[in-house]
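#lab-general

N.A. 3:47 PM
ok so I finally got the sequence cleaned up, no stray characters, all 192 residues accounted for. can someone with queue access submit it? mine expired

B.Y. 3:52 PM
send it over

N.A. 3:53 PM
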Amino acid sequence: GEQMKSELEKDFITHGKEYKNLKDLLRRLTKHIQQPKGFQYEIFLLKSDELNAFTVGGKIFVTKKMYDFCKNNDELACVIGHEICHNELGHIRRQIQSERLLQSAQVVKNILTLSFGQKKEAHCDMMGVDMAIAAGYNGCVAVGLWRRMKEESQEGDTNAFWNLLRSHPYSEIRSVCVGAHIEENYGHSCSN
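B.Y. 4:20 PM
back already:
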């Protein structure tokens, strides 16, 4: 995490209401981590036109484009909660161990671009929504967030063959799964 932080530092936005808002969101969400693994979370806003958020070693990076893409703090909370869950579930550590590569920051960057796997991504979607709801945010917004992601990324309709080659689930599938998760576990339909 420290390597990535130092490599990206030149692109940090370290002042202003958006940066403060991210810090406040992170502080509020981390209070709701069940059985925390001891990460000292930090969040960074990056000058970037890439629609992305990612994490390593308790460091969470949110691009300016992702920040602007999210319509409100409820959506941002779901995104940040998702990234927290990757840390808490040990996905990054396991990925690094399985690759047996930790020689340089470039290697860490390469690992971050690899998939955590569709199941792990979906698991973090659900847990991130749970964390957002526990912190008082509206988790249903994740349904619309993923639908807009589908449009923004122009990923098209789901395709069983191409799905085998994807690192992340299709956004439409993520939208449906999050809605079903909320209905099943909270007794609330996001379509209402």
